[in-house]
Each structure stands twice: as C-alpha cells, then as structure tokens.
Amino acid sequence: MPDELIFMMGKYEARIPADRLYTTNHLWLKPDGSRYHVGFTAYSVRLLQDVFFLDWGIDPNTAVRAKQDIGEIESSKALSTLYAPCDGTVGEFNELLLDDPSGINTDGYGDGWLFTFKTDAKLLSPEDYRKLLEDSWEDTQRVIKGQIN
Fold it and tell me: Which pTM value belongs to this model?
C-alpha cells in the first residue's frame, strides 16, 4: 500500500496518509498505543481554510457519543461546531492549539492534532475514506458554490 492516497479537490490535492484511520466527519485517527491522536483531514482543512480560533466545550477525559458537540472552531469561512468522531473518550487536548491554532493549517497531520481519543468504533480505512470523498464531491462542490442550502 502506498504511504498516502490523494483525492483531487479540483486542482488541489487532499493527502490521505495510509498510517491512520478516518471518520465520515473528516477527522483522522492515528494509533498511538492504546489511544489515537485525532486531527482534521487535509480535505476538511481545505474547506475550512484559515483556522484562527479553537475552543473546547468539554473537559479532558470525557466520555462522548458520536456526533456530540465537543467544541467550536472558527476559520475565515465560518464558525463551526466540532463533533465527536464516534463513541469514545476524549483524553487530552493539544494545548498548543488553544494559544495558536495555526498548526491546524500548517501541520494538520503532525503537530496540528486536536486531541487524544479512545474508542472501539469501526473506522474508515484510507481507501474507504477516499471513496467517501469521491462519492460526495459533486454535492460538496454545489454547497461550496452556494447552490444547496
């Protein structure tokens, strides 16, 4: 398997590293012992564009349910709610991002990770995630262009 897959967002490449798993709400989960580090995929960062504010609405070591509101992120595009990727426990937050969330923009697959997470949920493989992007890209483009509310 290659080190990463690529999904083309028009003329922009969205990298999908093969060393992690993915969720339908465009987060990556990289195994680290008995937990995962979680961050935004290149696809989601490209849609958000310049992230400049991040705030958590839960405390560290909180059990969460899939799609539970866990915080907010603000970018040049919008203020958005952050949702839990699946059932599990949010561990620690990346404290560096609270002071300066630009790491999400510049090193999203590295130091721009959001939080640690423990889960037993079934996650998407890199191939499954790329297929999800391919299957939804036409609708995503319409949303971006304001053709769907």
Answer: 0.90
